[in-house]
Amino acid sequence: MKLSVTSIDKYLLRVEAEGEITMRDFHAEGPDPFDTLLGAGWASHKVVLDFRRVNFVDSSAIGWLMTCRREFERNGGLFLVHSIQPRVRQVLDLLRVGKALPLLADERAALAAAEAWMGKNSAAPAPVAPASLPFAPPAPAAPKQPSLTAPTAPVEAFPVVGLPDLAPVGPAPKPRTRKRKAA
Question: Is residue 141 part of a domain?
Fold first, then answer.
């Protein structure tokens, strides 16, 4: 897995994940990949993670995503994942990851959800200071990214796209019972 910061807005970090996310990316006593990328206070940031270029995840990746969600929540940060490839999405849906972690359809939905969350949870969030991060901020891109200040559509707190509750289809099977032989 390769993580890279694609942009730093006033209050939000956009991070892109690339490649397969497997147990080889995590070490028992090593730092979290976000710790390596963003520094020690990584869980206090507002992060939108682009999964567009992730083509495979294993159980270690699922564990990492859930640990990140918990750490961001404990430290006042925000963690959203968007643009998930169908094959990866199928695994996440099968394991019902969307019940605990916001999995959004695309970047626009993620940015709108982030803005809605920031509006509900803090009057004036602290801006991300590029000097506090352990890397040089990326050069500004030519095309302007959508602004967090002008959402295109109203969004509920987290428009999580997940599996609906499954209802049985058709009548329930009759229980099998054994008939006793007469003695």
Answer: no
Q: Is residue 97 part of a domain?
A: yes
What separation, in Å, do the N-terminal and C-terminal C-alpha atoms of the chain show? 69
- Residue 86's CATH number: 3.30.750.24
How would you write the pLDDT of the chain (183 residues) with one tens digit per residue? 999 999 998 789 999 999 999 998 887 777 889 998 999 899 999 999 999 999 999 999 999 999 999 999 999 999 999 999 999 999 999 999 999 999 999 999 999 999 998 888 765 455 555 545 555 545 555 555 554 444 444 444 444 444 445 455 556 666 677 777 776
The whole-angstrom separation of Cα 159 and Cα 34 is 24
Range of the domain at 126: 2-132
| pTM of the model as a whole | 0.67
The CA-CA-CA angle for residues 147, 71, 126, to 5°, reads: 40
Domains in the chain: how many in total?
Answer: 1
